[in-house]
Amino acid sequence: MEPLAARIRPKTLSEFLGQTSLIGEEGTIRKLIEAKHLPSMIFWGPPGTGKTTLALLIANEIEADFFQLSGVSDGKAELKKVTALAAKNREYGKNTILFVDEIHRWSKTQQDALLPYVENGTVTLIGATTENPSFTVISPLLSRARVFVFESHTLDDIQRAVERALPFTERKMDKEIIKYLAELSNGDMRFALNTLEIATNISKKTIEKTHIEQGAQSYLRYDRQGEEHYNIISAVHKSLRSSNASAAVYWVARMLEGGEDPLYIARRLIRFASEDIGNKNPNALLLANIVYDTCHKIGMPECRVPLIQLTQYLAQSPKDNSAYIAEALVREDIQKYGNLPVPMHIRNAPTKLMKDLGYGKGYEYDHDLENKKSDQECFPEELKGREYFPKK
Q1: Helix (H, G, I), strand (E, B) or coil at 361
Q2: DSSP characters for 92-125?
Q3: What is the CA radius of gyration of the chain?
Q4: Is 172 inside any structural domain?
């Protein structure tokens, strides 16, 4: 038997739930369908937001042949077969939609192989990806396609989908339990329907909360190599920088719950302690290093609390990014001026020859001065007087 999610898949655009900005009355994709002029497209969004379903509906609406390839299991050989069939369709005036699921999994060479068929209109490509296409889809392909962003489903979308699916389960389910399932699903409709199907199989007449919990287990959308990884670590840094301890510990906990390596988080907190706190509170860097060692020694789950403790401490510390700014300015000067010579008076002179050549001549030993501070120039001539730290 087909999975529940497949059995209740919408057959028409009017049955499709969500993505109103794309297929609502004023939606861009709906208008393109009505105009019978569809460009190649990239559907970018989280799992379970209707990318595959909408591709199928588009093919039905414009009466096009629909071929589906997987970026995981299919390659250039399968693409060649599809494009050969598409070329025959074109001779008879029939459109072909090629749907490539997880297109980000294809290599540059595989994506390059698509270009001539997209360019000459042999196929209308619809690529689906959960990853940012700016980084995972080659530029020539992006320039020939429109990128459409799919949003996570709302609670209302998922509740309506569950209510639509209930008659197929022959089970009863209270409104509160439907809402609970929708909340657990984190915007992923496929997850909601798959969980409902498992709950159906382990229940009798009525689906209770315990059945949903057994079917769902734990679920957080997080990919340690994907965009969500970078979104959340960015949220950690910006919350810390804003001195918002509660938000910062929330995002750190989200990463840990999603399976992130605690040492990765600890390393990023060490960087923050230096970059954003610096000498306003040097103890921050010391504590960050201690917590890194703690995470290394005791691991998960015990290192959760030390990481949260450190996150709170960093958020509540005074902030100073002068070292970070100075490093960038220094690097800019080094790249601009290259290997500038060290001024003669501050060069070391360990040999008589070097002394005779003027190494160290005129050097003032600051400790011998009454105020312990000389005014001698320590920069090369080209950078004379340069200041990397603002005057207080």
Answers
A1: coil
A2: TT--EEEEEETGGGS-HHHHHHHHHHHHTTS-EE
A3: 30
A4: yes
CATH number at residue 59: 3.40.50.300
24, 144: one domain: yes
Mean pLDDT of 203-228: 77
Instruction: Please give the residue range of the domain that contains residue 376.
Output: 340-383
Same domain, 128 and 176: no
Reduced to 3 states (helix: H, G, I; strand: E, B; else coil), residue 108 is helix
Closest-CA residue to 1 (of 217, 185, 214, 197): 197
Assign 157 a pLDDT band (cuts: 50, 70, 90): very high
Please check whether residue 40 lies inside any domain of the structure.
yes
Place of tokens 């000067």: 333
The reported pLDDT for the residue numbered 35 is 87
Structure tokens at 128: 């689906």
- Write out the DSSP string of 321-345: -HHHHHHHHHHHHHHHH-SPPPPGG
Distances (CA, A) of 265 to 64, 254, 293, 295: 48, 11, 12, 10
What single letter denotes the amino acid at residue 274?
Answer: S
Question: What's the number of domains the chain is made of?
Answer: 4
Strand 65-70 vs strand 96-101: parallel, antiparallel, or unpaired?
Answer: parallel
**Number of other residues whose CB lies within 10 A of the CB of residue 72:** 10
Determine the 3-state secondary structure of 349 from DSSP. coil
pLDDT tens per residue across span 267-287: 999 999 999 999 999 999 999
**Same-domain pairing of 263 and 366:** no
Read off the pLDDT band of 199 (50, 70, 90).
very high
Question: Domain check: are 306 and 353 in the same one?
Answer: no
Residues 188 and 49: beta-carbon distance below 8 Å: yes
User: If you search the block for the tokens 């595989």, which residue do you land on?
Assistant: 110
Q: How far apart are the first and last CA of the chain?
A: 74
Mean pLDDT score of the chain:
91
